[in-house]
Amino acid sequence: MFDILIKNGLVVDGSGAKGFAADVAIKDGLIVQIGQIDGAAKQTIDAKGKVVAPGFIDPHTHFDAQLLWDGAARPSLEHGVTSIVPGNCSLSLAPLRAADRPAVIGMFQQIEEMPPEAFTIAFEWTWEDFAGYRAAIEPKLQINVAPLVGHTAIRQWVMGEAANQRAAEPAEITAMQAMLRECLKAGAIGLSTSYIDTDANGRPVPSRFAQFSELDALAAVLGEFDRMLQVVPEFYDADLTIARIDQLAELSIKHNIPTTFSPVFDSPLTPHNVARQIARVEEQAARGARVHPQMQTRPVDISFSLLRPSLFFARLPFWYRTLRQPLEARLASLQDAATVERLIADAGPEGGKDMFGRLQVRGGDAAPAELTGRTLASIAEERGEGPAQALISLSLEHGLDVAFIAASAGHADTGRIGPFLKHPLMHIGASDGGAHMSSFATYGDTGYLFSEFVRKSGTFTLEEAVRKITAETADIWGLKDRGRLAPGLAADVVVFDAETIARGDERPVFDMPGEGMRYVRDGIGVDAVLVNGQVAYAGGQYTDATAGAVLA
Ligand SMILES: [Zn+2]
Question: Lower CB density within 10 Å: C or N end of the chain?
Fold first, then answer.
């Protein structure tokens, strides 16, 4: 007797082979048979007219905190994602001494735009070491988790206050190696580091104080376990990114480890950057290096209101500082004539036309409904103000609860991006799931791959798209029993409609701890999602199965 029998679907097995009509039988968490199957099962899923594929894998997320109160990493699961990698960008919640929690929470707030309540009211801090964190999330997991450990976390653990002040002494590097080894033994899938991020005080995060010898020593430990090194390079600068590709290649060859870097964005302002990076990755691959650039499928859409700090203002330091103040001080500044004058001057020529003119009013909040969808340039003209002034006055008139969106602010040209995504060395990822919650929805990139790059542009066949986010990802990360449908492998399965799978519209919800806001997208066209042989999502509902596991 099988546990579950998925009948009459089109099996797209992750290998890239053409889909074929077959049934899939599951028992004890594993796929046991694929073909025409007539045996009895406790539960049968009719997949007629639907695709049956391996669960999707999302290799770049920041669900570290959310997993403590939401074992499904909602809404990832409903998009067909069955495995996620948290702990990216040098940040993880373990190892972490109690005394260092405020500093690390500050970094998550600063870098990933997570609300502070996410760390203070939704869970008990029961751990300091990596095994303890694993034990805290494991019982409630509805999705699989392959966690990275952050270089910043390890450095903070070993060096304390000195972690963001200086290079490490040899004895400290040895202690970091020992801590990394301990984390890898406790289930970490690799190490993440960052060359760009800053903490809550604007200081570089600890990982940025490491000399190359430190990273080399840590990569040697990764080599003992054949584990991943993830890096955020100086992605705003093509030359620096290419230098990082070379550095990753050296580490990959020397220690025989896989490496990945993210994000890689295409921009009309720098049209040759991605092609240059890919060419360098190809050269290094020819030498035997494993270096995988990560690219997201979705365009960059950034939303913000003046209610919350936003990365939208990262390029305008005075705006950034002004808007990061507590609410009362922020409101006072926005009503202070001298401050406003300086803000407007900072926004650039013609009252901030380039920076703010294209912004649209999102709607659905305190903004007058008739303004929804209109550009700030046209609203400003009507009001006889410049765009920067209009942004400030419109916000003040409605208690700052007016959201604006910079739609398709980059990485939006499907015709250019499709071939990059399809490149054999390109890794689809960089969703940033669970982060930047009030700036954009980091969910549904997989649905968008099918709607935009399979159905609309035809860049990928169905089978190629499935392979890209299943078997290829599993191979890059060394997840040996995931990413394919074959007897003996874990039964992570998604049943979806190839004609309709997509991402829902971006919408705000208030489901973060403390009724905090985030943008989400609902899954579309996903009928059922199985994690380790149990139905985790079906018919539009999450089940209470907790079959998710830490993948190590
Ligand atoms: Zn990240």
Answer: N
